[in-house]
Specification:
The protein has about 200 residues and is of the alpha/beta class. It is built from ten helices and four strands, in the order H-E-H-E-H-H-H-H-H-E-H-E-H-H.
Length: about 200
């Protein structure tokens, strides 16, 4: 995509599985990444999944492919701690979850879960990341523990914990999330301009 758009570098980031993909991109193509922004992600930390998590994801694949997305939404709300924490903060988000899952295709969602289960363990490689890194977590998100591990591994990284916030911190605290992300990106761009000016002298 960067080549197609003729962009040499970009700020890279994501939420949950998307952040796991973004982190692996930063490791694979460090010269193309200006900064890394990780939100609510255990997969970005690259730790092995717990047995309970593996079983829950495997059951999610089965429900998705045999019963459809409404059944998957109901299973997630009952069994996925990431979703349960969001519901505890905002019970009205139940309709939001139904709408979210209905936008997905069963095969596409099942394949995303398979990709999550197959992700490599990159924890010991995180120290190789040299670009600015912002980690945004929620105080009630099960992913916060792995994100703290990631913060400890990446020198100079910043961890911001929003409260009260679940695995969907950008939805629970949108103004705080936007402010943290925009300030981080602005600092990265200001720093990059300063380094370019210094090289010209």
């Amino acid at each position: 995509m960067l080549d197609h758009l003729r962009l040499r570098t970009a700020h890279v980031g994501g939420l949950s599985l998307g952040a796991g993909i973004a982190t692996r991109f930063a490791l694979a193509f460090p010269a193309r990444v200006r900064s890394l922004l990780v939100t609510n992600s255990s997969s970005a930390a690259g730790l092995p999944l717990s047995v309970d998590n593996i079983l829950m994801r495997a059951r999610s694949i089965e429900v998705t492919l045999t019963q459809g997305m409404d059944a998957m939404a109901e299973f997630a709300m009952a069994s996925n701690p990431n979703v349960a924490a969001r519901l505890a903060l905002d019970p009205s988000s139940k309709d939001e979850f139904y709408a979210y899952y209905r936008r997905l295709t069963p095969v596409g969602y099942a394949n995303a879960l398979r990709a999550l289960l197959a992700m490599d363990h990159i924890t010991e490689r995180l120290a190789q990341i040299r670009v600015p890194v912002l980690l945004i977590g929620g105080d009630r998100d099960p992913s916060l523990g792995p994100m703290k591990v990631m913060h400890a591994k990446i020198r100079g990284s910043t961890l911001i914990v929003l409260s009260p916030a679940s695995h969907f911190a950008n939805r629970d605290q949108p103004e705080a999330w936007n402010r943290a992300a925009l300030e981080f990106l602005a600092r990265c761009d200001t720093g990059a301009r300063g380094r370019r000016r210094a090289r010209r002298r």
